Amino acid sequence: MLDLEVCVDSVESAKAAAEGGADRLEVCSALALGGLTPTIGLISAIRRQLPDTRLMAMLRPRHGDFVYSIEELEVIQKDLFALRDAGANGFVFGAMNEQGGLAIDECREVVSASGGLPVTLHRAIDVCSDWRKAIDDAVKCGFGTILSSGQEPTANEGAGILKEMVEYAGENIIIMAGGGLTPVNIRHVAKISGCRWLHGSASIARAASEAFVQFPFGSADASNPIQVTDTDTTRLMKQAISDL
User: Which spans of this chain does the record mark as coiled coil (predicted)?
Assistant: First the structure.
């Protein structure tokens, strides 16, 4: 049986994913920005509600590229320790260099700081100039899993490259398919790619409250629908891969 990881950015979404049968949660803030480091309060609240659920905490201090300054890396490590103490079972992280490859020293430092907890390399690999070298470097850094869409906007489009990644990685590291997965395409992606782990938000749009939303507070439109994980969508995704 294949496993499903669901990314969430609220207690509501975490509970819905768990009820739908998710095998593991990636906990973030601001999924609309691709996922940023969650707050300590969010991890703590999810841990209280779901004491037996595996929680992988995102380590990403800002949106944009994955080339981090010394100061940003210090923040990342401090967040790691605090999130671990709050109940995280592992972490999701990736840092790149200016040449388009993994920043090996920085990645090693974060993996080492995890104290043996599993660390997933996130979709930074999808913008690396050489994914084969990136896989080799990820193994050297100590990552246990790589999340990828096969260097395409969605895993459905990148299923062929994901298959090559799985074959290249062998038993050295897990390749997890993610990016635009739905109940309609998840089975196809799993069969084509050979990935044993699949990743998605299993979300639906919920209209934002009209109360007090008169103008945006920042670059995002405050009137945009809110994406929340849906129990039925999670269940359908899990069922679609249950016999593979």
Answer: none
